[in-house]
Design goal:
Four copies of one chain form a homotetramer. Chain A contains four helices and five strands. Chain A is of the alpha+beta class and about 140 residues long. In chain A, a hairpin with a 4-residue loop joins strand 3 and strand 4.
């Protein structure tokens, strides 16, 4: 349900904001402000250790001995946080795997830390997003 | 194939680095240095508009009119860059979708910009990673 | 000069936003929205290579041979971009120096790159801000 | 005092790293590795709430009523953390001020939060660096 309220900001700032809106193809000021507010709130959910969602993106060479075994082993310690995963064969040796996670922000970071030290991992990144339940 | 070389850094710095290694559970200095070097190189691949891989994570309310239609429409303009996607039903109304992408860094950013302005989107994030081909 | 306009966003989102406002001690929604909008616009000024302001923060051991000489030499190639600098003696050997810069975003980044490779530098960071002229 | 140790990393990775070194004008692998290690350690000092140094960069219109008074008032609650400040007149109305800070990371963040809500502030940014004492 939408709710309307009024905002007063500097005239010059509004002009610049309207260019920003046009550049980013937002439909109007409300959509753009909604976007900025949500960005800020997602950040806060992670800071405040709220229930969040996220994605762990890993790139690795699947020939590395024990890598896949370690990767699965660690995931099984976090079954409450792992929803599903997606696997892409990038080339003959490289794999990209994305693990969708949900839970307290701290637990998700702990899972990241556990995975980070797997031998043979080329890159790992955590994407912080929201469950959408509150925002 | 591993190659060995020697490094000289400040004694005090090494001590601090060894604590960092322990805290992050890296097996040894070589693994930790490999990790830091790869992080820097992934950043460079994106800056230099190289062939990269990535993930676009979206959270949205699937009841929003036309959202799913728009989402599919835009993706079909980038079929060369989109490898696959994964969909999670977070709750009755919220969806989390992760699109795995590959291609020139600039094209991936353009896709992000196109998706960002979809009406009803709650959050979108781009995860920058590597194809692993060069690193 | 302030200008008033109205915004429609989701009721639930407003509630969360009001908590964010309270937590951050903003006076009201207008101030908080102004803050978020300015943050976005500062980012855009840097992306679009506009006239920007910034700060380069360096920490170094002043005993390192030639460091101070190199530091001054590079700065003299960027006299158009450097406004002033501030020097703090952190302890017997460590110095913190902050160089205030102004100019096109790309030139500022070039200065950062030149300084980064000075031998003996412990840390360097670029703070991106605005001249305030447009926002 | 320098200390030497040997590192084994992938041959292909070393080649890419050598391009990175050349591009960034680092003198050699040791300097580049020292740079990456220090970056990681500075991050850790802030995460672990260690004694750190930093800079708070503010841009504001000095005509805004009470702004300067508020700015000074808050700083006087943090005299133990504030070392010095530098002020630049960007144009007729805009000021850039950089406050050099030192102390526990959490206290510095608290000071940032206090300053963030000052009415009339255009932008504020915190630069996280190190006292250099441990690295």
């Amino acid at each position: 349900m939408l709710k309307r309220f009024s905002v007063s900001i500097d005239k010059l700032l509004i002009e610049q904001f309207d260019s920003f809106i046009k550049k980013n193809k937002f439909a109007n000021r409300s959509q753009a402000i909604g976007h900025l507010v949500r960005e800020a709130l997602v950040g806060l959910e992670w800071e405040d250790n709220k229930e969040v969602a996220g994605a762990l993106t890993l790139v690795y060479d699947h020939h590395k001995r024990d890598l896949v075994k370690q990767l699965l082993g660690i995931q099984h310690d976090f079954t409450n946080n792992i929803i599903s995963s997606q696997h892409v064969h990038l080339d003959h040796k490289n794999c990209l795997e994305i693990i969708v996670v949900k839970g307290k922000a701290k637990q998700i970071r702990e899972l990241l830390n556990r995975l980070k030290s797997i031998k043979g991992l080329k890159h790992i990144a955590l994407t912080a997003t929201t469950t959408g339940a509150q925002i």
